[in-house]
Design goal:
about 400 residues; alpha/beta; 11-stranded mixed beta sheet; 10 helices; disordered N terminus; disordered C terminus
């Protein structure tokens, strides 16, 4: 439960990690007490997109960039309808935002949405600690400052391993995102919202896709009944090992030979649908400047990430699955983690990173074009005429 302050007052705040490490600072945002898995994000820009990314649900996010809030907050850049992070850790909040698009300060927005944060001098030390010890549970409090008492509360808080969270962030009802006015509809896409970012269907719509966004609980029958040209599974929070229903839905989509594209959580769901396992990374990949190599072209993409789990797949070449041969298509050059999968006998692929990322590099934006090419190729092989109409 958080308390909404009535003014810009800051008070002492305490951050306690699961292993007993303590950081003291001052409040930033709402007053109160919040729990979550503490992680770090390396982005220099795009804090508003980070805060509103549903994949950060139940996580306390530490920003490694020293100054946060410089451009304020606006109503155009959010990736969803609310801030999803459980808590926020920064080094130096901006005293005064300076941007022509700013409508309010970041501190005001966090207070408005009841998000508890802390400003501490030691964000570099905290990040190094998380790199050494791994992501862990934590608490930020402006109400209790006894580390022993806070540590007891942290120990009683839920872990991220085994957490089934997509149902807490997905849309309640289907909705449609259409191409910009004057752009013909080339394809129709069913997008399963496991924690989707607003920019993702927009990127597809820019390419002439009419996107029907479905709740994460959508069954195979509901997905296939739409008769779309392709199916997309989005990013999202939680442990992919809990997403059995989504895995079963995707298996039916693959069986129907529907062109498929998945990102982040969707990549992990594809891995599980192919019979692969998933595992939790030590501290995850979150932020920008993540080098990912295409194993075929050897081209290196500088990418934006937000994931704490990964797919366990063989990287030595093609392997057999219930849907024919598959291969690892991309790997992370920092640690060798699998960053993409591709089916060789059916029209399906996925990546672990974010090609839509408005806050990060655009090296991977052509993956949306690749999905459109896949739908076009499948249409041609089936002898289906090209759709080319304008929506009214």
């Amino acid at each position: 439960m958080t308390e909404q302050p009535t003014g810009p007052e800051t008070v002492p705040a305490t951050l306690v990690l699961e292993d007993g490490r303590v950081f003291r600072g001052r409040s930033f945002g709402a007053h109160g007490e919040t729990f979550g898995e503490i992680v770090f994000n390396t982005g220099m820009t795009g804090y508003q997109e980070t805060l509103t990314d549903p994949s950060y649900h139940r996580q306390i996010v530490t920003m490694t960039a020293p100054h946060i809030g410089n451009t304020g907050v606006n109503d155009d850049d959010p990736e969803s309808g609310r801030v999803w992070v459980a808590g926020y850790v920064v080094r130096e909040p901006a005293r005064v935002p300076s941007n022509w698009r700013a409508q309010r300060t970041l501190d005001e927005e966090l207070r408005r949405q009841g998000v508890v944060g802390i400003a501490v001098d030691g964000t570099r030390a905290l990040t190094r600690h998380l790199r050494d010890r791994g992501a862990m549970r934590a608490v930020i409090s402006t109400e209790e400052h006894d580390p022993a008492r806070l540590l007891e509360k942290v120990a009683a808080s839920p872990k991220m391993t085994g957490a089934d969270l997509s149902g807490e962030v997905t849309t309640a009802e289907p909705y449609t995102v259409r191409p910009p006015e004057g752009t013909p509809v080339r394809f129709t896409v069913a997008a399963v919202d496991l924690g989707i970012k607003a920019m993702t269907p927009q990127r597809l719509a820019e390419r002439g896709c009419e996107v029907t966004v479905l709740p994460g609980t959508a069954t195979a029958e509901e997905i296939l009944a739409l008769g779309t040209d392709g199916v997309f599974f989005s990013n999202g929070p939680g442990d992919p090992a809990t997403a059995d229903a989504s895995v079963e839905a995707l298996r039916a989509v693959l069986e129907a030979r529907k062109p498929f594209f998945g990102i982040c959580f969707g990549n992990q769901i594809l891995g599980r649908a192919l019979g692969l396992g998933t595992f939790k990374l030590r501290f995850g990949h979150r932020g920008v400047n993540q080098p990912v190599q295409d194993v075929h072209t050897k081209r290196v993409h500088i990418t934006s990430h937000n994931h704490g789990f990964a797919v366990d797949a063989p990287t030595g070449g093609p392997f057999d699955t219930p849907f024919g041969r598959a291969e690892v298509s991309h790997v992370d050059l920092n640690d060798g983690v699998v960053e993409g999968l591709r089916l060789l006998d059916r029209p399906a692929f996925s990546v672990q990173y974010h090609p839509e990322a408005a806050a990060g590099p655009h090296d991977a934006a052509d993956l949306f074009d690749a999905f459109c090419d896949l739908m076009e190729a499948e249409r041609a092989s089936a002898g289906t005429p090209q759709t080319n109409r304008h929506d009214q």
